[in-house]
Amino acid sequence: MSFYSIDGIRPQVDPSSFVHPTASVIGDVIIGKHCYIGPHASLRGDFGRIVLEDGVNFQDGCIAHCFPGGETRVEQNGHISHGAVLHGCVIGENSMVGIQSVIMDNAVIGSECMIAALSYIKPGFIAPDRSIIAGSPAEVKKTVTDQQISWKTEGTGVYQHLTKRCLASFNRCDPLSPADKQLTGAALDIKHFKPLK
């Protein structure tokens, strides 16, 4: 079971979203439409509120938490890559957080930003829209190009399509033996998947 109440507060999840059975969603958590929550993700709304707006993907091993009375928010079409930690911050619309990055309290990341893998965002850090952010501690390095944001947007569309695939066909199963034959899926062409508007 993925969902837990605390102090009588229960998570709220739109039925168009997919939450993996190994994820933990606790207390004051709001998950919007067409979101993907990956394996072993942790959304802990036991001190403050966690909000994932429509179209967000929150991949395997990601963590969202905050101090008492705080809020962690990922705005529409946010892309939170494997193992990232968000603590009391805001991630702007259509922004991407790289693999195993850490974003700390009161940091505000603007819209259409890209945070490099393994970055550490200090408390109170402010990034303007379309920033490329990298380092430990992280700094704004340059501006996101139209080509880069197009690539990010298409990748988010792939995860929104994965949400639909999981809702339609995700099931526990026994593995095949080496002697069994199975057709493999075709490679995905990300240009076919458009993110939410």
3D architecture notes:
It is a single chain. With 197 residues, this protein is mainly β. It has a single domain (3-143), classed as Hexapeptide repeat proteins (UDP N-Acetylglucosamine Acyltransferase, domain 1). Helix content is 12%, strand content 34%. It is built from one helix and 20 strands. The protein has one helix spanning 146-169; strands at residues 3-4, 12-13, 18-19, 24-31, 36-37, 42-52, 57-58, 63-65, 71-74, 79-80, 85-87, 90-91, 96-97, 102-103, 108-109, 114-115, 120-121, 126-127, 131-135, 138-143. The strands form two sheets. Strands 1, 2, 4, 6, 8, 9, 11, 12, 14, 15, 17 and 18 form a twelve-stranded parallel beta sheet that branches. The protein starts with a strand and ends in a 28-residue tail after the last helix. One of its GO terms (molecular function) is transferase activity. Pfam families: Hexapep (PF00132). InterPro entries: Hexapep, Transf_Hexapept/Carb_Anhydrase, Trimer_LpxA-like_sf. Keywords: Transferase. This is Transferase hexapeptide repeat family protein.
List the helices and strands and how they pair.
Elements: E1 3-4, E2 12-13, E3 18-19, E4 24-31, E5 36-37, E6 42-52, E7 57-58, E8 63-65, E9 71-74, E10 79-80, E11 85-87, E12 90-91, E13 96-97, E14 102-103, E15 108-109, E16 114-115, E17 120-121, E18 126-127, E19 131-135, E20 138-143, H1 146-169
